[in-house]
Design goal:
The complex is a heterodimer.
Chain A lengths: L1 H7 L2 H5 L10 H18 L2 H26 L7 H19 L2 H23 L4 H21 L1 H4 L5 E2 L11 H25 L1 H11 L1 H6 L4 H27 L1 E2 L6 H14 L4 H25 L2 H22 L9 H8 L1
Antiparallel strand pairs in A: 1-2
Chain B lengths: L7 E12 L2 E12 L3 E5 L6 H9 L6 E6 L2 E2 L7 H4 L1 E3 L12 H8 L15 H18 L15 H14 L4 E5 L7 H12 L4 E5 L3 H7 L2 E6 L2 E6 L1 H6 L1 H8 L4
Parallel strand pairs in B: 3-8, 3-9, 6-7, 7-8
Antiparallel strand pairs in B: 1-2, 1-4, 4-5, 9-10
Helix pairs in contact in B: 3-4, 3-5, 4-5
The chains are: A mainly alpha, B alpha/beta.
GO cellular component, one term (chain B): plasma membrane
GO molecular function, one term (chain B): ATP hydrolysis activity
Protein name (chain B): ABC transporter ATP-binding protein
Chain lengths: 339, 252
Amino acid sequence: MTDVREKRATEAVQSKAFKRKKTPHPIWYAVAGAVLVAALTHYLPPFRNYQLATVGAYFTVTAGLTVLTGLNGQLSLGHGALMATGAYTFALAQNRWLALPLSFAAALLVTTLAGVVIGLAAARLRGPYLAGLTLAVAVVVPSVTSTFDDTFNSDMGLSIALDPPPGAVAMEQWQAWLCWTGALITALLLAVLVRGRFGRDLRAVRDDETAARLAGVHVARTQVLAFVVSAACAGLSGALFAVLAQSVSPGAFPLTLSLFLVMAIVIGGLGRLAGALCGAVLLVALPALAQTAGERSGSQRLEGNLALVIFGVVLVVVMLAAPGGLASLRLSTIFRRKR
Amino acid sequence: MSTKTPVPELVLDQITVRFGGLVALDDVSLRVPAGRIVGVIGPNGAGKTTLFNVICGFVTPSAGQISLGGRSWKPRPHRLNRLGIARTLQGVGQFGGLTVLENVLVGARGFRSGEEPAGRGWPAGRARQSEQDALAALERCGVAEYAHAYPGTLPYAVRKRIELARALAARPRILMLDEPAGGLDTDEIHWLAGLIKTAGTTVLLVEHHMDLVMSVCDEILVLDFGKPIALGTPAGIRANEKVTEAYLGTAA
């Protein structure tokens, strides 16, 4: 035993000390995040608060999507549609009962059910076929609104009745708090879920289905669960967007949104919650940047398409410079590159 | 190897597998007594891996019965682990995105073939138990030092051992090894033979390396084009003319 070990352990392998990286419990990140957001909302002007809230809402969906795509290997191009499902459910529930927690619960429940249905189909599909199915969902859901226009009011969408924020809190501040509460709870739950056996099974299924099955992993169940979890995240995110806009319309959840979400988690770093956060920031920052640039150039036509161009360029650059995404960048890596 | 007649743990009864017009396995029967080491050999394409796939539930036989521990049994891949059956794959079937320890932990699911009740205690306690099992398995295979490395960075022989460790971490009562010696050198094969002999479980072994098969197996089944052509002790198989013929062809 020992002789072989000595022989096989080549210099290259042994020079690296294979130590486990100790990471603090995700709850500390969540607490730190909450403190940071509370502080920021106190000092930022209303528009920045609104942007901060949007980052939180995006983070809720990208976190779930990165678990599905990055850790479980299922590509979904339909998360925008799941967000729409959550948003519309929230709007209908809110307009009927005017109870915020109830509406959030309804949004979560309905998107979870939608996730079960799509997930069951998705677990049988691989690669491009799965992408095709989720793409179909992304296309179908917005058109449902015009088919049943009595309920969903077609392209006009629904406006949402919201109670005024409690006390002397500004609307934008209240929105930011709501969004980040949702985002941080989602991220915390996902982080805890992914740390244990479930996370390991997710990644095992992604890497080698046959070997995972032989090791005792129920592959289909794992895939459906992953889809359902990420669908629930998308539903919550959709509800948060409904709170932000105080209205829902199919135009708010176009196909490009689903594609942007996938791009964001790839640029941020697949399979990492930190990457999902980077992606969420980019989803808010890049369009804002594009708008400013468009306004400066004085061209109306440029404005709409510039965001796409910028996203494309950022994607290419990040993939070349840091294939693991922005979240994989460390100061030490940058330093080593320069040397 | 006890002197009393061992109870057959796994029994394959007249298994036939057809893929369209191709008969991959033709009327194969095998009794695997508990604690014995049974080898399955044969030229390429003889149906050895298909036989393994039947036992694992990846392939449903067109005819024939399988029974486990005396009961009729329909195998399903993801349930093997909790039934105490572990299998390694040809080559290395590893999870590249998981560390070596995590790779082994996927197999260590806390289902015991022994007397301890499965999955007792708090989740944290169970996780610790799984981790101990996994580390013990890595230690046993001599690769514990790589626990926190990623398999992609390691030499092939080490990865083969990690594969074995993942199978052993499940504390199986039946260990199925599909070409465990493929790509290994003499020293490694010697070590592997030692591990198989001292595994303390029933072992089913598919292997091309004759020295290994002959030295570790209690019983050997020889397949040729899906047909069982011989079954017996290593000495008997070595002397069997049909086997020689299957491997080397008939004299002109």
